[in-house]
Every structure is written in structure tokens, then in C-alpha cells.
Design goal:
Length: 161
């Protein structure tokens, strides 16, 4: 009976230590994203009329932006592009009348044969707000298409990576 408990302890203790180590690594990996999200939402609420947050993402281009989308009290949809560089000012755009995420994805599906949509995220370029649509084609190649939010026109297409 004693041997059974010893073997159980020999197996359980290392297993518990391994699980604890994995949880610690996971929490440390998530920390920068969580801090960026909290910072961006705080700035977005201070600098704009956003009262409720709908979405958050990180957009990387020539510069990195934390993107917060939300609504005002009057149900107006705003996007706040908070630069990672804290010395720069956030950019606030009204996207109420622009192309929605769903409309952008539908336009892509109507024009290109996509195998799998990997992501659809809001970003900002010199031309204004864009939807970055990342997908796999039938040859499992990655494609990046950028749709202008305001006009609904394609801004840039990067194919077959």
C-alpha cells in the first residue's frame, strides 16, 4: 500500500510542477497583449466619445496601432487608432457609414476563391481606415487584401505568399 502512494507522489508532484510551469508561461505570454488592450481602451475612452467597446486588435504596418472600436451614446460607431508610440496622438475615425467587417468579408468571398479566412481586422494606413483580410487560397498560400473602409475599394492586394 505504501509503494502505491510513493508511486502516485512520484508521478503527481512532477505533473503538478509541469502544469504550474505551463500556466505561468501562458500568463506571462498574454501579459503584453492584456496591458496593450487596457491601455488602448483607457486612451480611447478618454480621447473619444466611445462609451462601450466592441472590439480590440493590434494592427502592424509602418507603425503599430492598438485599434479600439466602440459605440457612442448615440449608437455612432467609432474606431480609435492608438499608436504604440505613446508620444503620438490617437486617430479617431467615424466608421458608422463605412464598410463593416461582414461586408468586407462578403466582398472578398464574392471576388476571390478563398479556402479559409484567417483574420479580418481593422487597421489604418495613410489612405485612411482599412480592413486587413488575410486568407488561404486553394493552393494554401497566404494572401493579404486591404479594403478601404470609407470607399469600399481595394487599397492593396498581396497575393500568394
Amino acid at each position: 500500500m505504501k509503494k502505491k502512494w510513493i508511486w502516485l507522489a512520484v508521478i503527481a508532484i512532477p505533473l503538478l510542477l509541469i502544469c504550474t510551469a505551463f500556466l505561468n508561461v501562458y500568463n506571462n505570454a498574454q501579459k503584453p497583449h492584456k496591458e496593450a488592450k487596457e491601455y488602448a481602451i483607457s486612451v480611447a475612452k478618454q480621447e473619444s466619445a466611445i462609451t462601450s467597446v466592441i472590439d480590440f486588435n493590434i494592427y502592424n504596418s509602418e507603425e503599430t496601432y492598438y485599434v479600439v472600436t466602440g459605440q457612442t451614446d448615440k449608437k455612432k460607431k467609432l474606431a480609435v487608432f492608438v499608436p504604440k508610440d505613446k508620444k503620438k496622438q490617437p486617430i479617431i475615425k467615424d466608421i458608422t457609414k463605412g464598410v463593416s467587417k461582414e461586408e468586407a468579408v462578403k466582398k472578398l468571398q464574392n471576388e476571390e476563391p478563398i479556402e479559409k479566412l484567417l483574420s479580418a481586422r481593422l487597421g489604418i494606413e495613410k489612405s485612411g481606415p482599412v480592413w486587413e483580410l488575410v486568407f488561404l487560397d486553394k493552393n494554401d498560400q497566404v494572401n493579404y487584401y486591404y479594403l478601404q473602409v470609407n470607399s469600399g475599394e481595394w487599397w492593396k492586394k498581396i497575393k500568394h505568399i
